[in-house]
Every structure is written in C-alpha cells, then in structure tokens.
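Technical note accompanying the year-one report. For the benefit of new consortium partners, we illustrate the data format agreed upon in the data management plan: each record pairs a sequence with a structure-token string. No post-processing was applied to the example shown here.
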Amino acid sequence: MTTAYLFDLDGTLYQGDAAIAGAPELIVRLRKAGTPFRFVTNTTSKPRSAIVARLRGYGFDVTEEEVFTALLAGASLARSLGFQSLLPLVTPAALEDLSTFTLIGGSADSSSPPLRFPPQPDAVMIGDLGGLWSFSLMQQAFSALMNGAQLIALSRDQYWMSAEGLTIDCGAFVAALEYATGVSSIVAGKPSAMFYQAAAGSMTLPAGTEVVMVGDDIHSDVGGAIAAGYRGYLVKTGKYRENAVAASGVAPNRILESVVHLLD
C-alpha cells in the first residue's frame, strides 16, 4: 500500500530557530523513495514564500507547491463563497497571500492607526497577530460581524510553542468574537476536514493510498486528520504535553519521540 504524508511544520519539522535533528534528512529519504508528501501549517503570520524560505534555510528540500497553508486555504474558501472584500486580522507580512481581495481596515496598513469606522467587508478573516492584537482591532471585527460579515478562522489552535514557551494562539480570539457576536466561524485551516482533503488532493495519489498526518497538536493535527478519515501520528516535540493528550479523548495511531522515527 502506498503511504502519503502530511507534515506539520513548527514543533514537528523545526522548533525555534533550527530543524528538528534529522528531519531534513528524513525528507530527502522520502523524496528519493518517491513517497508523496506535503508540508501543511496553520502558521498565518507569514506568506507561503516566507515559509518556503525558512524551510530552505533550515536545510529542507522543498518547493513552493509542496507547502499548503491555512492562509491559502482561507483565501480559497473566501473566493469559493464569492467574497471580494476582507477585514484581515493577520500580520502585514501575511497580506501577500490575500492580494486578490479588497482589504478593509484590520492590519492592512500597519503604518497608520486602524480606521475607526471602516467600510463593511464581506468577511472577517482571523489569524495570528501575536503582539499586534488590540482592542481597536477586536472592535473593528465585532462591528463588521454585527453588521453581517462572515467569520473565517484560519485556525482555532489554543497555543503554540514559541522561544518563550507555550504561547496563546488565535483560537482564543476566534472564541471571543463568536461569544460576543453569536456568529459561528468557518474554519479554513486545521482541523477542518476541507483543509486535509485539499492538501491530500494536491498530490497525485493512486487509489487506496493511506494518508498520514504527522504533527505535535493532538487536536488540530491528530484529531483533525482522524476525523477527516486519515491517520494521525503524534510527535513528542513542540507543544506535546502528555496531560493534554490524556484529556483530549483522541487516540493517535502512533506516538513518535520525534519525526525522525517515522520510518522505524
């Protein structure tokens, strides 16, 4: 049986400012063997071009077409729904991947204060803003949603492992806007089944191929993949926490000390 792999990035293939030991060599082995794979990430603070450059800087052999991001999935979802204008709650750098839309308010112009009463967008797109989060931005999003905009969540991740330790992710801000407005978000990135199906669909796979997601998030990576009908392997790097796994109710198909043990 043919096996294809979907690899999470931060915490799985690299952590901090370096690749996980042996991870670049693993990708070389898979490529030489003709094993299909894609790099999939909920990282929304950077465009795909920057993510590719980062991977190459860590020694990974990767092409742009092999990287599938929540930001690109969100843009595709917005286009499929006929949306033309967005209020983008993402970093200014990430706007590169939203260039086909009219961008209203949000973080679209970091050189000037946010518009107090921006025009009404078709949708609010929420990703990772890190230290750029502010009451003003949340109020803009709240006003747009109360006036009929849709809410696209690029992820609902709870936290990620930064250089400073576990760090709050955008899922908390998504939940806050849902609570305040009563509007339910459409999730574009992991753990959305649409995300996994699109990533797997970007590869040419023979019938019966087993698709395996490898990641450090028990919910978004492993739980999402299993719910989409694939297999989920959990790595004990990145934000892995044994107590979080026990409390999740998700049973990984495999638990690996690190991604380098994938082919053991």
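Partners are asked to follow this layout when depositing records. The chain is about 30% helix and 20% strand.
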